[in-house]
Amino acid sequence: MTTVICPICKGQKFGKFSNRPSAKCLTCGSLERGRVIYMVLVKLGIPRAEDRILHFAPEKCFIDLFTKSHAEKYQAFDLFPERYKNSKTTVRRFDICEDLNSMPSDEWDFILHNHVLEHLFCSVKDVLHGLARILKPEGTMVFTIPIHKRQKTIENLDPFLSEIERKKTFGQKDHVRLFGYDVMYTIKESLGVNCFIPVTSLFEEEEFVKAGIPWQPENEPNGKSIFLYKKSGKF
Ligand SMILES: [Zn+2]
Fold first, then answer.
1. Within a domain: residue 22?
2. Keywords in UniProt for this one (predicted)?
3. Is 28 among the domain residues?
4. How far is the centre of ligand 1, averaged over its atoms, from the C-alpha of 30 (Å)?
5. pLDDT tens digits, 153-190
6. Residue 187's domain is classified under what CATH number?
7. Which of 219, 185, 210 is nearest to 32 (CA)?
């Protein structure tokens, strides 16, 4: 049997997360999608040492990594910074729906956000467009979103919808939408290109098994699928 080793921290102990046995690395806290992202970044050589990095809803494993590698060139933002009390960097409060418009254009080399868009009480298209705007030309944005086995995305931006209703409809009390396959068009329309990277174009099954990540290329697009956008010129 293959020994499973976390590619991020080299830990070998894994635990259950959300009914998925061995989903979480017990050393660095990474989930499968975090490990996929890490492997993609290593494979593609991003971010470069000189890059300015912007990270939304930052996972602990990446905070630790980028704080070490990029120090003050790394900025982490979240709507609820109080959740990151013992973090190695200062996570600043940022409301993507409200604050993105006031950010200068062409500022960041690398933007990372995982499972953020399903939480936002504003237009996914506008947000993706705004994020592309603040990327430097030739900058890269990498993101993942939960995509469900359904054709159409459903959403409800009513601020008064109860958490119980949200959980019932969208699967989590703080989700405002459930992405279906049509989100692929939304992303393409927002960014002007199809930035979905099929897992088979970058990895072999063995690399996933070794990193404790289920290999399910036939189930893509899904919550671990990589979207990578490279900005060419002005946006
Ligand atoms: Zn780990």
1. no
2. Methyltransferase, Transferase
3. no
4. 6
5. 999 999 999 999 999 999 999 999 999 999 999 999 99
6. 3.40.50.150
7. 210
In a domain, 124, yes or no: yes
Query: Which stretches of 99-148 are assigned E, i.e. beta strand?
Result: 108-114, 135-144
In a domain, 164, yes or no: yes
Q: Which long-range contacts (CB under 8 A, 24 or more apart) does 203-206 make?
A: 203/39, 203/43, 206/2
Tokens, residue 4: 């499973």
Task: Write down the pLDDT at residue 16.
Answer: 93
Q: Report the separation in Å between the CA atom of 14 and the middle of ligand 1, taken as the mean of its atom positions.
A: 8
Domain count, the chain: 1
How remote is the CA of residue 16 from the centroid of ligand 1, in Å? Answer: 14
Residue 39 φ/ψ, nearest 5 degrees: -65, -35
Which domain does 157 fall in, by range?
48-196+216-230
Maximum Cα interatomic distance, the chain, rounded to a whole number of Å: 52
